[in-house]
Amino acid sequence: MAxxxxxxxxxxxxxxxxxxxxxxxxxRVYRFGAGLTGLFLLAFGILGLIDRIGFFxxxxxxxxxxxxxxxxxxxxxxxxxxLLAGAAIGGNIASMLNMVVGVAFLASGFVNLALxxxxxxxLAFHIQNVLFSFVVGVLLMTFGMxxxxxxxxxxxxxxxxxxxxDQERAGHPEH
Length: 175
Fold this sequence. Notes:
Blueprint: H1 4-7, H2 26-50, E1 62-63, E2 66-67, H3 70-89, H4 91-115, H5 127-145, H6 158-163, H7 165-170
Antiparallel strand pairs: 1-2
Helix pairs in contact: 2-3, 2-4, 2-5, 3-4, 4-5
């Protein structure tokens, strides 16, 4: 009688931080997403600090159409700098950073949506900040997952090849 181990087929596990050549064209997408968002956040944070807004001021101080205070400005500068560093590095680092920061923006949007009009809204979020968090989160996740997650990746895609190594070795990938 055969055990369950003999009937199992080997599974290929693909980590999202592997299999992308340094010079692959997907790196441009990851760099563009991280760089553009990083520049916006950096500018937003710097302009917020220049206005000398109180650190935890919850008043109506607006910068670039978004409500802000000193704490949000500093957080924006740090995240913007992190995204710009990812854009400079490129490749898998930029892709993974886009995905992680995108999820963080979505989580921030939900948390701050719950905190609107409460005394715990120490980052001075208004509804436009929440919407901005949702939009930027989805955009960053899209930039980070572009070319990595799909049901119809082209066969020259390094992630498709990593998932189908047995078919590539056989010389006849399925279509």
